[in-house]
Design a protein that fits this description.
By secondary structure, the protein is mainly α. It is built from ten helices and no strands. Helix 1 packs antiparallel against helix 10 and helix 6 packs across helix 8.
């Protein structure tokens, strides 16, 4: 019984690592260094703040490694609710990992372009700035593709939470809504050129953020609550 509760809290700790490193590398650093409307400012920011940019890459790697273990820990505590949903959760989550790692090559390219390498000496600064913005846009496009699986895994995860009886149902609902939010943003950004100007994307992006931060802290602080039907405590 205590083993399941401890496993749930361990999963919450891993989730916290994912949340913190993800927010740092995907939100904080881009906000500090990238101006999507000014390639010159962005180039200078990354060149002058290369340590912060390198730290964001390292943070990405920690995030994706932690995310590799997260669904495996969640499978252990939720598999008895529904084995099929639990397997789907793991598969969909793990499919995002190689995509995420492969996408980091664009960040490394951006680092190279701003690094004053000898073979760039005959290339104009304007061309380097254009290539930099291209790499950053390719990185963002790769993230957009990865959000398909970042969204899809939340649906079976949410179903498992909802049906578990040991985690509040509203968290399961939020996780499923998080899936919807990711997929709406993916669809909108892919099909509509001006989707980002509509403003709905910001609100859709809040759904998975609230859901995942909520389940993270619930698992970390409370673990699994006592199941009322039967004498088993903290078991699913």
């Amino acid at each position: 019984m205590n083993t399941n509760k401890n496993t749930a809290r361990a999963a919450g700790l891993v989730y916290l690592v994912v949340v913190i490193t993800g927010m740092f590398s995907l939100a904080y650093v881009p906000q500090k260094l990238i101006d999507w409307n000014n390639s010159s400012v962005t180039f200078n920011n990354i060149a002058d703040g290369s340590s912060l940019f390198r730290l964001s890459i390292y943070s990405n790697i920690i995030c994706y490694v932690a995310f590799t273990f997260l669904p495996l820990a969640l499978h252990r505590i939720l598999r008895s609710v529904n084995e099929s949903y639990a397997r789907a959760m793991v598969v969909l989550a793990l499919l995002s990992v190689p995509l995420s790692f492969n996408n980091l090559q664009h960040k490394y390219a951006a680092l190279t372009l701003t690094g004053k390498e000898p073979f760039f000496q005959n290339i104009s600064i304007e061309d380097l700035q254009i290539k930099l913005m291209l790499s950053l846009h390719q990185y963002n496009d790769g993230l957009l593709l990865t959000t398909v699986f970042w969204g899809l895994w939340l649906f079976p995860f949410g179903m498992l939470v909802y049906k578990s009886g040991v985690i509040p149902k509203f968290l399961g609902i939020l996780l499923m809504l998080g899936c919807v939010g990711y997929l709406i943003n993916f669809t909108g950004n892919t099909l509509f050129e001006n989707y980002s100007r509509i403003g709905i994307g910001k609100y859709m992006g809040m759904l998975p953020a609230v859901a995942e931060i909520g389940i993270c802290f619930w698992l970390l602080i409370f673990g699994l609550k006592t199941k009322r039907n039967g004498e088993q405590n903290n078991a699913i």
